[in-house]
Each structure stands twice: as C-alpha cells, then as structure tokens.
Amino acid sequence: MVYTNPNGHDWGDKYNYDGLGISYIVVATLYSIIFYSMCGIVWYYRKHPIIKMRNIGLAIASLLILHVYLFLIFIAYPLNGHYPCDVEFWIMSIYLPIGIGLFQAQNQQLLLVSREQSKLLVTDESFKPLGPPSKGPKKWLFHVQQWWNSFSEQGKYEGFVAVGIVAQ
C-alpha cells in the first residue's frame, strides 16, 4: 500500500509527492514510454499489408489525443491544484470527444474495408443507371447526388466526424 498525503488533493501550494503521487507519475511515464515506442514501431511497419488496410495515421492521431488526456488525468493528483479543475474540465470536454471521434472514424475505415471485401465475393454490374430519366426540374438534384456519390464512404464519414467536432 502506498503512502498518501493525509490532506489528499487539497489544492495547497505543495505538490503531492507522496507514495500515490509518485506512483501516478511512474505509471504515467512508463506507460508513455511504452505507448510512444509502440506507435513508432507501428509507424515503421505501416507499409505491411495488415497495417496498411487500416488508416494508421488516423489511428495514431486518435490514440495520441487520448493519451494526452490520460496523461493529464494521471498527473492531476500530484500537481495538487496547480492544474485547476476548470482546465481539467476543458481538456476533458475537448480532447476526449475529439479522440473518440477520430477513433470511431478509424473503426469506420475497417468496417468499410470489410464491406468492400465482401462485395468482391458477389458482384452484379449488369444494372447501372446512366443518368437522370428526364431533364426536368430534378436535374440539379441529380448533380448534387452525383457529387455526393463521388465521395468514398470513408470520406463521407470523416466529413460527418469533422462537422461533429466543429459543432462540439
């Protein structure tokens, strides 16, 4: 069991370098070293087919943002109020949703790759619409639909995630 400051997280002038505070710092530092080295290894082997099918840049970006959030949470106790609660709140309300949103976009990439691979099993190219049936008032709608369909599903999903991040 680690020694804790009897006053705990008291927002005093002293840092909490008791047993718990030192444990948090050691765990956060060791985790960061392992995390960054693993990110480097994955980045080094990014041309490998298994890693290449994942959007590795997006995955590492999301994990880095989530790691910054985790590291700041780990050092909140040892800093003992030198890292105010309102800063922690704003970091939580900015870094956490952006990191989770980017991680979801990366997971969507894997789902789309899986769907594309399943389409390779059964393809029916016999019916393709050639264009709008008439040149009436719906022609602009057809052009908007063509523009929208020109984007990949991943691009559409990342666009939705970007709009969500901006709105948040």
Overall, the morphology is elongated
Report the sheet with the most strands, covering strand number, pairing sense and barrel closure.
none
Radius of gyration: 24 Å
Terminal Cα span: 41 Å
Output mean pLDDT.
80
Structural class: mainly alpha
**Discrete helix count:** 7
Per DSSP, what share of the residues sits in E-state strands of 2 or more residues? Answer: under 5%
Count of DSSP strands: 0
Instruction: Estimate the helix proportion, in percent.
Output: 55-70%
Query: What string, H for helix and E for strand, traces the elements in order?
Result: HHHHHHH
Low-confidence stretches: none
How would the blueprint of this fold be written?
Elements lengths: L18 H26 L4 H4 L3 H19 L1 H4 L5 H37 L17 H11 L3 H15 L1
Helix pairs in contact: 1-3, 3-5, 5-7
Notes on the protein architecture:
- By secondary structure, the protein is mainly α.
- It has seven helices and no strands.
- It has helices at 19-44, 49-52, 56-74, 76-79, 85-121, 139-149, 153-167.
- α1 (19-44) runs antiparallel to α3.
- The mean pLDDT is 80.
Can you give me a brief rundown of this structure?
This protein is mostly helical and 168 residues long. The chain contains seven helices and no strands.
Task: Output the keywords.
about 170 residues; mainly alpha; 7 helices
